[in-house]
């Protein structure tokens, strides 16, 4: 890691600073909830995935900070959560808890002299209902990526990106439980290291990492391993998020010797961008669709760190199609040497086994 490049010529300087401030404040709320997670604080959404008070609280805080820091912007946000489950009968206590957490975090931070009512909280959450698309500017937010990891006490990330005319131009990724130096070969465990990493990148200006409370940003780059035999790979901790029969088949084809490193959330993109590992891949089951907020921030951080992010057909990811990613058969993040080899192995696996599609 070395000093970051000069920021002259970065047309997104104000947005970059606001995005880092937003994810860092949201991380503070999340850290507090994770220390004291109660059954009451977790709900199950209609799609049967979990959501916590911290997912909602984080979404409110990120939207608040962006609006406070960039007041002249017309605001559009594509975010994961909406208020539907918070307005159902019986959700009053849950909503009150979200509101209390948000207000306590704002007061403790001291940057803004405002507090939010329950109605303000619902409005802020539903500010994330934009469809995004190819025109104009849209923030893309995953207020907690890796909610299952968050509940387990493991890795999670607050992932914020800016889409400008259909292209991701900025990403900020707060990973409160990710060791600051490296995850190396352990599942997020530190070896006496400082914990918490905030990755960020703006287009054309490289990627950096700093601590969540704002140390001097350090430039990062992907690893330069070119022989898959020496490579390590990251994949989802959750068995249902990535087909392991498929990835172990591809790993075998590539001759990878190291066992998979399984980490929740886009912390995997951050770790790849910093060179902690060589490959992150994700081959979800056919029926599941990938959302833009699960990849936007992580992918620009990897590409600005000198890496590549592609689908298994070798196409760039297209974030301009709305709330879902239009991609084919899996997502791969790695360096320029390994990418063609991984794509080839994935495509061979597709043909031989018929397991991707
Ligand atoms: N059955 C499933 N298959 C594939 N992805 C899933 C899934 N259930 C949830 N996900 C997605 O996987 C994300 C977590 O990724 P990872 O496996 O890398 O930790 C979740 O983000 P959220 O936690 O924000 O909902 C969610 O979008
Ligand atoms: Mg979710
Ligand atoms: Mg997510
Ligand atoms: Mg989420």
Automatic annotation (TrEMBL):
Native source species: Leersia perrieri
Cofactor annotation: Mg(2+)
UniProt xrefs under NCBIfam families: bisphos_HAL2
Gene Ontology BP term (one): phosphatidylinositol phosphate biosynthetic process
Entry similarity comment: Belongs to the inositol monophosphatase superfamily.
Pfam families the UniProt entry points to: Inositol_P
PROSITE patterns in the cross-refs: IMP_1 (PS00629), IMP_2 (PS00630)
Classification via Gene3D superfamilies: 3.40.190.80, Fructose-1,6-Bisphosphatase, subunit A, domain 1
Catalytic activity: adenosine 3',5'-bisphosphate + H2O = AMP + phosphate; 3'-phosphoadenylyl sulfate + H2O = adenosine 5'-phosphosulfate + phosphate; adenosine 2',5'-bisphosphate + H2O = AMP + phosphate
Superkingdom, taxonomy of origin: Eukaryota
EC number: 3.1.3.7
Protein name: 3'(2'),5'-bisphosphate nucleotidase
Keyword Translocase included in the entry's annotation: no
CDD domains: PAP_phosphatase
Keywords: Hydrolase, Magnesium, Metal-binding
Presence of keyword Cytoplasm: no
Residue positions binding Mg(2+): 80, 142, 144-145, 294
């Amino acid at each position: 890691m070395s000093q970051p490049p000069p920021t002259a010529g970065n047309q997104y300087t104000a947005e970059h600073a606001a995005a880092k401030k937003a994810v860092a404040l949201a991380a503070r709320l999340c850290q507090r909830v994770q220390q004291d997670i109660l059954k009451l604080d977790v709900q199950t959404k209609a799609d049967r995935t979990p959501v916590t008070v911290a997912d909602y609280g984080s979404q409110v805080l990120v939207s608040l900070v962006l609006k406070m820091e960039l007041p002249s912007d017309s605001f559009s946000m594509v975010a994961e959560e909406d208020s539907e489950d918070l307005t159902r009968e019986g959700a009053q206590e849950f909503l009150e808890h979200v509101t209390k957490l948000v207000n306590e975090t704002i007061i403790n931070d001291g940057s803004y002299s405002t507090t939010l009512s329950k109605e303000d909280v619902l409005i802020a959450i539903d500010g994330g209902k934009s469809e995004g698309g190819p025109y104009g500017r849209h923030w893309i937010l995953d207020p907690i990526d890796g909610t299952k990891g968050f509940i387990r006490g493991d890795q999670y990330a607050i992932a914020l990106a800016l889409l400008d005319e259909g292209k991701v131009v900025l990403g900020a990724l707060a990973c409160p439980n990710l060791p600051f130096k490296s995850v190396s070969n352990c599942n997020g465990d530190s070896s006496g290291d400082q914990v918490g990493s905030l990755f960020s990148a703006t287009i054309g200006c490289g990627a950096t990492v700093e601590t969540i409370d704002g140390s001097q940003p350090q430039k990062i780059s992907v690893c330069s391993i070119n022989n898959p035999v020496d490579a390590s790979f990251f994949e989802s901790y959750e068995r249902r998020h990535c087909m392991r029969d498929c990835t172990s088949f591809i790993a075998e084809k590539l001759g990878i010797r190291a066992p998979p490193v399984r980490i929740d959330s886009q912390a995997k993109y951050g770790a790849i961008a910093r060179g902690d590992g060589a490959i992150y891949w994700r081959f979800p089951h056919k029926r599941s669709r990938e959302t833009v907020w699960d990849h936007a921030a992580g992918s620009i951080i990897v590409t600005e760190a000198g890496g590549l992010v592609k689908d298994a057909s070798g196409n760039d990811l297209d974030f301009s199609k709305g709330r879902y990613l239009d991609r084919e058969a899996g997502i791969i993040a790695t360096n320029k040497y390994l990418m063609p080899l991984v794509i080839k192995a994935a495509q061979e696996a597709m043909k031989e086994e018929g397991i991707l599609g």
